[in-house]
Every structure is written in C-alpha cells, then in structure tokens.
Amino acid sequence: MGATAMGLIYSPWGKRSGSHMNPAITITYLRLGKIPPWDAFFYIIFQFAGGLIGVILTAWVLGTAFTLPPVNYVATIPGPTGPWAAFAGELIISVIIMAMILYVSNRAAIARFTGLFAGLLIACFVEFEAPYSGFGMNPARTLASALPSGICTGLWIYFTAAPIGMLLAAQGYLAVRGPNSIHCCKLHHHSAGRCIYCGLQGLWEK
Length: 206
Description:
By secondary structure, this protein is mainly alpha-helical.
C-alpha cells in the first residue's frame, strides 16, 4: 500500500491533480483556502467513485477470492479492542500524515520527498495501526468496500476520525507557521506545466 501511494503521487496524473485520493485531505485543503469549493466538490465525488469502481473491478477479476472471507472486499472494521480504540487509532494516524504533508510539502529543500514519506508512513500504519482499526484513514476507501460487501460496522469511525484528525493537524500548523507558509494543495509540485492552483511551475524543485 505504501508503494502504491508513492507510485500514484509521483505519477504524471498524480503530479497534475495533486494526488489527494482522500476526501479528508481535500476537505483540509479546502479549509486552508488552497482549493476552490467547486473543485473540492468534484475531487470528493470522484474519489468516492474511483474507490467504488476499483473495488467492483477487483471483485469482477478475482471473484470469490476477493469477496469471501477472509478478504471480504477488504472491508474496514474495528479490531478486537473495540470502536473507540479504532477511532483513536484513525485520529492519530490522520494527524500524523497531514502534519507531515504540510511540513514537508512546504519546504523547498525536502518537498520532493513528500510522496516518499507518505508511502513510508502508510506502510508503518498498515503494520502497527491496522490491528486496531483495519487502517481506513480514507472515507472513500472505506465506503468503496462497505457498499458492495454490506459490511458497515463502525462506519461512523472512518467518516469522522480522518477529517477531524487532518483538520486538527492543519489548525496546529496554522497556529505555529501561519497561513502564508502553505503554498499549494498539491502533495508533489514538480510538474512541467503550470500548476492549476497556485499558477507556478515546478516551484518546489528549484
């Protein structure tokens, strides 16, 4: 999962779009005023649509190996420690990854490593946090598995913890660094073309 995230972030499509792939990240950048509301709306719509299409295609290709236990559409459910431990785990990892994104992506010397750090964090979360919550951190990813499988256990956790955690990280960053320290909503800003959000080209690769 970490390698997949890195591949998408550094892909031409990821560089073009900003590689959010997560409604909670989009909502956070909307709060920070770095993405227009209309764009944020369509980002979120297509994040949910893309996740659902991905699950449906995987079920079509793999069949029962994907849809039946123990995989169960890779549905995200709380671990044996219960829903509040799952909520706490999801909240903590969401704060950590959003704080990292804001810190790294807004420093020219290390901004190009944002995707690498994101992938490494995701790999760590899968290893150490997944036993508590199943590792959601993305409402679109969770709903994509919940709809076709019908497994909606603790769905509220995955729709609240990630946005709250990332918004908390953003508020903390604003308190320490101020709004002028956030330059763009893209996770990786190296691009041959002009940025559709900040209007600059390859700013963080100079």
